[in-house]
Amino acid sequence: MARKTNLILQVKEYIRIIDYAEQLGFEIKKIGNDTYTIVDHDSIRITESKNLYSRHSNQGKGGSIIDFVMEFDERYPDLRSATSHLIRQLRHIDTEEKPLFKALKRERGEGNNKTFKLNKRIEGMYTRAWAYLVSKRKIDPEIVSQAIERKEIYQDEKGNVCFCGKDYDGKIKYAHARTTLTNADYRGDMPNSDKKVSFSINLSCPIGDPPTKLFVSEGAIDCLSLMTLTKIHHLNENEYGYLSLSGVSTKALEYHITKNPQIETIYLCQDNDEAGNSSRKKCREKLEELGFNGKVIDKPPKNKDYNDDLVRLSEENKITN
After folding, report:
1. Is the pLDDT of residue 1 over 70?
2. What confidence score (pLDDT) does residue 25 get?
3. If both were cysteines, with which of 11, 60, 155, 165 could 199 make a disulfide (CB 3.0 to 4.6 Å apart)?
4. Which residues pair with 63 in a beta bridge?
5. Is the confidence at residue 108, as pLDDT, over 70?
6. Residue among 37, 24, 67, 75 at smallest CA distance from 188
7. Which domains does the chain carry?
8. How far is the C-alpha of 23 from the C-alpha of 42, rounded, in Å?
9. What is the pLDDT of residues 50-105, one digit of tens each?
């Protein structure tokens, strides 16, 4: 009992509500020195130094990261499932290196630069990442191999698969790690990742000629899935661009579309759910604001997301063959 109590205290100290909210696809906005809110949920107040949140529109709602998960992550609606999930996530956090929240706030200080830090790369080791992407997620092996060669994908020392996003100077400015373990669901951006850069293929570092058509999705695996499906349908997958929004924010779309004036057609491929529909609408509004005059086509997946579509297609072909 004492050990579990200690783990719960560590969960509340080390797993940031702000980070978790971004993992769920929420856009975070700073509204004070120590206070944040969620765009589209502006009654929420997150106090960074205390790692607590409150909801002005519903008195009594709020609390720790555990309460936040129960309220906003539909996969873990009760105390037991939320706590177990967060304890699993805790195992992926280096608590010896990462300071507590109160210490973290003091350490930053005014004007202190935040440092982007990649998880440690294990050169030549891709066994778990390969099995996860190719065997489980059904991504085309040649696409995975080429992404590894371009250093867009690697496996870290804990066996996570890591997706890297490059800016237009070819520098990695964004990275996202995802567990390859079967009975775990850890995922998260690496510290101080630039979400506007996000993960993309064939945009900031073109494979051939700059693409005139762009697929937009919520996550890196959906980018790879769309690329695989394009290849399956006998199209040249390298003639398209693929962009992950790292959730549902429009920041990455705005950044990359302004750098790629040759884009003529954009396919909005976010998830087939309420959040995905909302994201498509916001992307259309942002593109209109930017003066984009090409075609914008809503292209939601048949199932939850495009990886679901790819996996089901793979299973159907296996049965047929």
Report:
1. no
2. 72
3. 165
4. 53
5. no
6. 24
7. 2-108 (3.90.580), 127-320 (no CATH)
8. 18
9. 899 998 766 667 899 999 999 888 888 899 888 988 887 776 665 544 444 443 44
